[in-house]
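We treat protein structure as text, and this decision shapes the records that our systems exchange. The remainder of this section carries one protein's record, kept here as part of the documentation:
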Amino acid sequence: MTAGTTSAAAPELSPLAQERLRYRRSRARRSTLVALASTVLFAGAVAVGITSSPGWPRVQDTFLDPAIAWSSLPAVLEGLWLNVRVLVVAEAGILVLGLAIAVLRTLRGPVFFPVRALATGYVDLFRGVPLLIALYLIGFGLPALRLPGVPTDTAVLGTITLILVYSAYVAEVFRAGIESVHPSQRAAARSLGLTHRQSMRLVVLPQAVRRVLPPLLNDFVALQKDVGLISVLGAVDAIRAAQIESARTFNFTPYVLAAVLFVLLAIPTGRVADALAARSARRQGWA
C-alpha cells in the first residue's frame, strides 16, 4: 500500500467532531470581527476627539507637517543607520558578556566566591546606575583620562556603555534560565562522564537559552529605544539629526518622524518575542 493510499484511507471526522470544528471556526471568525470593529471604533473616537480639540490646527502644524517630515527624512534615516549599527554591535556584546557573567554567578564552591562576588557587584552596580548617567560618566569621563588606546568616538563610547549596562540585566535573565534547569540534568550529564564545562555547554545552556528567549527579546526591544540615548554624547544618530532639523525649521515634526522610525524598527522584534512566548506557553501546556 502506497503512502497516498494510506493518507486517502484516513478516517473522517464524526458528525459531532465536524460540528464542533465548525463551531470553533465560527467563534474564531466572530471574535476576529468583534476585535476589528472595536479597534476601528476606538481609533475613530480617539481621532475625532483629537482633531476636534481647539488647539489641533496648531499641533498639526507644529508636529505633523508633511513637507518638513519629507525634507528631514534623509538626515533622520542616515542617523537611524548609525542607531542600527550600534544596536547590532551592542546586542552581540551583550549576549557574550551577559552569558559570561551569568555563568560566573552560578559557579559552585567556596573557591569561586571572589568570582561570584565580583559578578554580583557588577550586576548590582550597572543595574542601579541609570543609563543616562552611565553614558555621561563613561562617554565623557573615559576620554578625560587620556589613556593610550582609549576610544574617543562618541558612537563607540555609547556602544560600550550600552553593553555594560544591558549585560547586567541580560545576565540575570540567563542566570534565571540556568537555574531553572533541574539539577537532575546536571547529574545525568556527569554520570555520562561529562565534565562540568561540557555539562554546562552541551546540556544546561541549550535548555536555559531556549527558556529565556522571550524575556531576552523583550530586553532587546528596550535596547532598540535606548540606542537613541547616545545622542547625548554628540553622536549624530536619528534623535540628534531630528534635533538639528527641528532647530533649523523651528518645528517638532522631525522628532515625530524619528519616533515613528524607532517604532517601525521595534515592531518586528516585538512580534517575534510574542510568538516565542506563545510557543513556549503551548509547549508547557499553558495555552
Summary: The first helix runs from residue 3 to 8. The chain has a mean pLDDT of 85.
